[in-house]
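Hi P.,

Sorry for the delay on this. The queue was packed all week, but I finally got your sequence through. Input first:
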Amino acid sequence: MIHLSHPDSSIALVELDVAPANVLALAERERLLQAFAAIEADPAVRAVVLTGRNGAFCTGDDLAEAMSRDVPAQTAAILNFLAMCDRVAACRVPVIAAIDGWCIGGGLELALAADIRLASDRASFACSAVRMGLTASAERLVKLVGESRAKPHLLTGAPFDAARALADGVVAEAHPAAGLLDAALDMARVIASRGPLAVAATKRVASGLTRTEAEIPALAASADHAEARAAFMGKRPTAFVGR
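Then the structure:
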């Protein structure tokens, strides 16, 4: 199952719940995309936390299902998984991956599609595609941490822990498992409190989809920018409205 809830009106929480290790068969991928479609359709949502139940984040494709596919179907299924990750990456609001337990193969690709990654101290990562005769994560991981840090993970497929993920820049923060979700939700609340137009523009620029110079004219003319200036001068909280 894929659970979608709203801890606050401005925050969406998406939880993978496919025991025991949160594999994503084709049907579960469609449910995940439906959750993100609902988020896109809700203008009140300003940040997303993506996580997994069952002591795992995600372990990629359902290999039992994969065994029944012929080569064309398997090729299509792999490309489908990558397209799902692209859809998560394209979400209009920032996505925070809260990674607890296993995050391997396609699960790591999904985590890398998020804007921010937080890990628990018991998280375990692996770029395991090469162990399955495939390739995954090479584009996103190299873009994130650089070629010299990415290639040992990509080419060996060896597991690495949260401390290594933090040192290499794969994740932004590491927390005790019991506090991981709260830390992710706290960060989401901070993001949700900022100007939504500015956050969306910053995500686009940081993702390489546009340039700062292209975003500034509309932001400078926005009601949110005027409100932020007035709030600063009036020494009061800013009331962003998203226009």
